[in-house]
Amino acid sequence: MICSPESTLATFRRDVAATVGGHPIVYANAYTAWFATGAADDEQLRRFTVQFSVFSHLFLEAQLRKCLNAPDVASYRAGKEILLNELGVSFARGGSVDGGTFRFRAGHFEWIAEFAASLGLHWNEIGKRALGLPSTLAFCDALLEWYGSDDESTAAGASFAIEHWAAAGFWKELIAGLRAIKASRLPGMPLGFWTWHDAIEDQHAAHTDDELAQAFAKPGFSSERFLRAGTAMLDAVAVFWEGLARSR
Q1: Distances (CA, A) of 9 to 67, 169, 203, 213, 216
Q2: Where are the alpha helices (H) located in 69-133, listed in sequence order?
Q3: pLDDT (tens digit per residue) in 56-106
Q4: Strand partners, 89
């Protein structure tokens, strides 16, 4: 439904908290809880890395589609901030890629490729769609459909859900497990990809309330489409992690 004058921002926030904040994958991720213990053996660690690399690489397609479907120049630029940083443009002063410097090695996929190399994985063994489990590809395709949607309310709901999930602590659980593995048997394993994303998500978390208010204020905003997309996106996130759990 399109929000009526009777629909208040406070009501919308409560609905979002119940639907997005209350989704099981946000507060109870069995795979990352297991991973955090450092129990993954070398083969399990490589499997995890391959699937995460596929998601990380194919995310670029969804982010490009988000830019192409942006409803206004401000949204277009916000989308490009993420896309260009992913590709290797550093943030300049003020936290924008505008004025930043491009470096090949600053591309996020090159970071994860460096991490993978420390595990004995080569370039052609990571990041390719053909390497993805069906569950990983289902998540990537859901990103294209919902996160990259040309419907503004849908894209906003999917984007909010992804940010909320990313800020809920899964990066910290992965880092805990990787640090335990690094300390016990792989001292040369670089963790920059993981620690950088964790730090940036902590910053994003502070802005989620503002994002809700901005979305709600847009003309023609539909809370129904926002919440439906948020749920669908988190369901797809859950499929990704469940696929990894089964692959153990």
Answers
A1: 27, 26, 23, 7, 7
A2: 73-87, 108-117
A3: 999 999 999 999 999 999 999 999 999 999 999 999 987 899 999 999 999
A4: 102
3 state SS of 197: helix
161-201 tens-digit pLDDT: 999 999 888 999 999 999 999 999 999 999 999 999 998 87
Token pair of 59 as six digits: 């995310």
Q: Is the pTM of this model over 0.85?
A: yes
Q: What is the dihedral of CA 49, 55, 58, 63, to 10 degrees?
A: -130
Contact status, residue 50 vs residue 63, Cβ threshold 8 Å: no
Contact 235, 138 (CB under 8 A): no
The separation between the first and the last C-alpha atoms of the chain, rounded to the nearest angstrom, is: 42
CB atoms inside a 10 Å sphere around CB 137: 20
Write out the residue range of the structural domain in which residue 202 sits. Answer: 9-247
CB distance 132 to 140 below 8 Å: yes
**CATH code assigned at 14:** 1.20.910.10
Mean pLDDT of 146-158: 97
- Indicate the helix (H) or strand (E) that contains 205: helix 192-205
Place of tokens 């978390």: 205
Nearest residue to 115 (alpha-carbon basis) of 182, 38, 34, 40: 182
User: Could you give the number of structural domains in the chain?
Assistant: 1
Could you tell me if residue 100 is inside a domain?
yes
Question: 2 lies in a domain?
Answer: no
Q: Is residue 227 assigned to a domain? A: yes
Q: Is residue 151 part of a domain?
A: yes
